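COMPLEX REQUEST
Ligand: zinc ion
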Amino acid sequence: MQCADCRSLLDAYLDGELAEGERASVREHLAGCADCSRERAALDRASVRLQALSPRATLARGYAIVRAGDAVLRDAAGVAEGMRIEVELARGALGARVEDVRP
Ligand SMILES: [Zn+2]
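STATUS: Structure written out below.
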């Protein structure tokens, strides 16, 4: 495998999207190519930084995303008692109704 081939498959390799044959070819090339290994390490670091910014990472820390319809709620002032809301958690979601509003 040439470096250009490895680079073109690297994203899919890191995402676990390659069939075993291609995966093995990329793995073998990375084991013997310092340039492509550095590229892989740079992609890994970028991936970690992006995951830290993801709303999913925030949910995993115990926060929730609250929506009314398609809109994300950021301000209690726009919410009415009795409004149906969706609460998205790290695992699963809740449908709920607002009992009282404290803007
Ligand atoms: Zn290479």
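REMARKS: The radius of gyration is 22 Å. Residues 34-53 form the longest helix (20 residues).
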